[in-house]
Amino acid sequence: MKILFATGIYPPDVGGPATYTRGMARAFHEKGHEVAVICYADASQVALPNEESFPVIRVSRDRSLRKRYREYEEKAFQLAKEMDIVYLQGPVSEGYPGTRAAKRAKKPTVMKVVGDYAWEVYMQSGKLNKKKLLDEFVTHRHRLSPKIYALERIERETAKYARHVITPSVYLKGIVERWGVPSDRISVIYNEVQAIPDGLSRDDARREFNADGKRVLFYAGRAVPWKNIDFIIRLLPKLNDPTIRFVIAGDGPSLASWKEGVTKAGVQDRVLFLGPLDRKALGEWYRAADLFVLPSGYEGFPNVVAEAVSAGLPVFVSDRGGNPETYPMYGSNAIRVLPYLDETKWLYALQVDWPKRMQPIPHTQTMIASTEALLQRLL
Prior knowledge:
Blueprint: E1 2-6, H1 16-30, E2 34-41, E3 56-60, H2 65-80, E4 85-88, H3 95-105, E5 109-112, H4 117-123, H5 134-137, H6 146-161, E6 164-167, H7 170-178, E7 186-188, H8 202-208, E8 215-220, H9 229-235, E9 244-249, H10 255-265, E10 271-275, H11 279-288, E11 291-294, H12 303-310, E12 315-318, H13 326-330, E13 335-338, H14 343-352, H15 367-378
Parallel strand pairs: 1-2, 1-4, 2-3, 4-5, 5-6, 6-7, 8-9, 8-11, 9-10, 11-12, 12-13
Helix pairs in contact: 2-3, 4-6, 8-11, 9-10
């Protein structure tokens, strides 16, 4: 096959789509397929030497939206003419110009959908006290907000044009169906989880992190409103165990408000903010911690849960989004599903119901083979 991967970000940019696209492109290239990648990049990165064994075309994002979309479309069109299929890594920044390019080149598209970008923009704008979770958000269109409505139109139109859509969870498949894409044109392929790098042992990590004699709650991920880490912070003063410490890794727009919540709750001595971690440090915290918490109102599929259990760390998750899909994968020893923002249930679980650490549970690695088989079938 000849495949054009159209993505918004690619290394050295960091993030899930960048890691996924590079991993897939390399895997397909190693399998003998012809591969090319198009992405956005900072102006200083556009002329970087290409370290891949296949073309990587970078479009500067340091210009107006109209100009960068126009350049992305034109370069994608030139690449797509020589390809069999265009694999879009999202419906908007790569999906809009990538779909236009594929149409011009008369080539089919496949799209990966890992979330609803219109909803994420909506969630990070204005006051949060009346914000709707994604399940309610997708039930109607938001014509009174021109920006949100435009994003909704783009998502739906590019997804409906695609010959097939790939989602990383059954939950997200349901969201895409509500965009108007028929169910038989959507496949669920769970993401693979990168192996946790070797590092300090659990005992050594706990000594290094001054965690001996403490019960460590851990969260790693984006600091965005729907993760509800402020909910856990508010529960800390009500937990009667002075040995509990809450360690938070990551960065994002909600970080400042979470820190304010710690001060307001008077638990500065019980919460540690680490900021972003590299993979090695993240693995050491997975080994050092006693329980991972994810009380989020939305997850496409929570890769951090798969990472945590792969290191032997049990997890409490909410019953929203793709979170419950982790339970049948890993079982009750690894996953506890709790009602969304139910203070009574979460307090009880955090007070007396911590599961013991377990043997690491490897994540099934089928993503590359399943994606390859799907693309070959479509062609």
